[in-house]
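REQUEST FORM: STRUCTURE PREDICTION
Request ID: SP-0412
Submitted by: Lab K.M.
Chain count: 1
Length (residues): 330
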Amino acid sequence: MKAAWYERKGSAREVLQIGERPDPTPAAGEVRVRIHRSAVNPSDTKQRGGARGNVVMPFPFVIPHQDGAGVIDAVGDGVDASRIGERVWVYEATLGRHGGTAAQLTTVPAHKAVRLPEGADFDAGACMGIPAMTAHRSVMADGPVSGKTVLVQGGAGAVGYYAVQIAALEGARVIATVSRDEQAQRARDAGAHEVINYKTEDVAARLKAITGEAAGVDRVVEVAFGANLATNIAVLRTNGVIASYASDAVPDPQIPFWPMLAKDLTARFVLVYAMSRQAHDEAAHWITAALQRGALKHQFYRRYTLDDIAAAHEATESMSHVGKVILEIA
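STATUS: Completed
RESULT:
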């Protein structure tokens, strides 16, 4: 099979190789998927680049990318052979494994290849793993949101865009923050009822104006935990929840214990790779049902070929665009 891989950590153009590797064989409980689309996530580029000093290779080589979509073409022992030919979306392909979706073939545990409903294309399927599952957990982990007010910080980002949709589809009033006009329109298209530009507006003041001085928000889905902590504490109602999946700008934030205690706030940290099997299954069930009825929108930046994987990684790292970077696998 044709694949991309790296044998050491470093920049995309320095370490990524493209060529032929042996076809993988599914072990017991696994399926093999012929990949049509492979998604590039920030965690894929950070893993390859050795972010936060993680420069030790977990395997002699790694075929990158956690997420993708394609068709099952072989199954291992214990897996129903009727799944051969099934269109699926794949998640966490390189979690504890060396073979991701940046290849013509990959193998994953059978439950990590989720049926892709008719009407949903492979581009959409490739986006469902890390972003949509993280969004589902962030919105829904602390109970139903119907009738509640949910603030999505970074509402046009990869996770935020799906979090806005999930919260709105589940009956919440959704307020999203963005940093520029293009993102504001994306957040509105996703279902945000109100949008705040955090670059030009006082987020706390706008939220108080939107919700009423004494009202505030019930939940926050957060992409910058440390940077936005003070604002979130100020705008959350008593018993509110911050569900955060990133804190890049302030990687080691200090917790203001007494202000959070005074409101009995919950800080939930969401890492898709550490989520329970139940949480994964609940997310997969919700996502599949939403895809089945055509309820989800998706945002794409550009498709690259496998030969252009270095450029695809660089585009993801630049953070200058809106939308998912996708590899089209021949």
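NOTES: The CA atoms of residues 302 and 325 lie 5 Å apart.
Reviewed by: T.R.
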